[in-house]
Amino acid sequence: MRNRNFILVPEDRPDRAFTDYHRAHRHAAGAQDTDSPVFQLPAVGDRYPRWSLPALEAATWVREVHPESFAAFDLALFEAFFGRTEDISDPEVLEQLVASVGLEPSALDTALARGRYHPMVMREYLEATGQGIHGVPTILIPGQAPIVGAVPYADLKRAVEGAFRGGSGGPHVDPAAGAIIIQEGGAQF
Q1: Minimal CA–CA distance to 9: which of 56, 60, 52?
Q2: Domain residue spans in the chain?
Q3: How far is the first Cα of the chain from the last one, in angstroms, to the nearest whole number?
Q4: Domain 20-130, CATH homologous superfamily name and number
Q5: Helices 53-65 and 118-130: crossing angle, nearest 10°?
Q6: Which of 33, 65, 89, 113 fits as disulfide partner to 50, beta carbons 3.0 to 4.6 Å?
Q7: pLDDT tens digits, 34-50
Q8: The pTM is what?
Q9: Tens of pLDDT along 109-154?
């Protein structure tokens, strides 16, 4: 599996706040299955991360310099934002998350201050959009249609397990529409 960057909020916007839209998506994601991740439902108007770049640059630094810690840092970012509603655009939050996986926060500060990973984040974002990817999450599994959006956890798990077994195991695709059928008789994306 290769993790790549996709910028959701490319500019610093201090006015961002949680909306009913954000709450509805978190509620739907958290209600999917008993073993799906925990999602905190913030109040409408609570501060939303100002932009995507600081967290993406930090994750890229970990991925490139400390690859053995990437999975733990990626999970820490996810849990901070979705599980505890922390502002992962805040450098202090990123320092705490780096420290939580055993890495040195001052090394992250240096990397971010130098802007070394900004070009890499931008390149990966442009590569994704050039391939027709316009949202996250987008999961590409060889031999299967792209899985886009917050699909039910059970369907995603089945697709990944199928890939490990060498079968398709992925979501069913409506050949006429080219859309992924999330649940038989249910919604299509």
Answers
A1: 52
A2: 20-130, 138-181
A3: 23
A4: putative protein disulfide isomerase domain (1.10.472.60)
A5: 100
A6: 89
A7: 665 666 677 787 777 77
A8: 0.68
A9: 999 999 999 999 999 999 988 887 888 778 888 777 788 877 777 8
